[in-house]
Amino acid sequence: MITSTSNQQVKNLLQLQKKSKARKEQGVFVVEGVKMFREAPADWIVKTYVSQEFLKKEEASALKGREYEIVEDRVFKTMSDTMTPQGILAVVRQPVSSLEKLLNDPAPFFMVLENIQDPGNLGTILRTAEGAGVNGILMSRDTVDIFNPKTIRSTMGSVYRVPFLYVEDICETVRELKNKGISAYAAHLKGTGSYDEQDYTKGTAFLIGNEGNGLTDELAGLADTYIRIPMYGKVESLNAAIASAVLMYEAQRQRRNIER
What we know:
Helix content is 35%, strand content 20%. By secondary structure, the chain is an alpha/beta fold. The strands form two sheets. Strands 7-6-5-10-8-11-9 form a seven-stranded parallel sheet, with helices on both faces. A four-stranded mixed sheet has the order 1-4-2-3. The radius of gyration is 20 Å and the shape is elongated. The termini are far apart. The relative contact order is 0.13.
């Protein structure tokens, strides 16, 4: 049993919780809670830690056939990134994807994110993307770390199932998508047409920019079409995650109707 916060494993876990650099160097991230543990692919899990109190709960049945390390309750609280720890966390391997794999679909559907900074927004976009049937999330290098604990919690498990990729040059990536016949739509205040007037049943990529500044001129300039979500009242725009959800589900609606 781990009984001290000075334990090297505890120190490493704290680094993984707090520092993107540590997660990147080790190629892992941390998930917390029974749901995130249950849904993690077994071959992705590197190590599991549980508190003494957790072992007394019914949820401890999730550990059947698994190896785990027991941690004193007091120490477990220091390891956790949540205010009310559920008593179980795991170190998980970071998934690896490639643009080539994502382009295999005959009518691929992508979200292209430029400089998204809020961990909750990114996690919500990923979770919504799974529900809307998005093929993959492509992100600029300046986008917040998807393995940030807050982002991971916001995905509610979608991080295991939705392919995603950070790219060195987001503009070059969009050019590559367009060369493959995928239409790029920029959610932009200068958009004149409503988002629901376009055809998203073919290869589609929605470009979503930074929460405060929107898309850079360079990336926006690569869009085939500027689209806008109509606004009433004095509201100029929606939260990045909400705007993404509106666009993704319009594309899903159109594609679902085609399938019928």
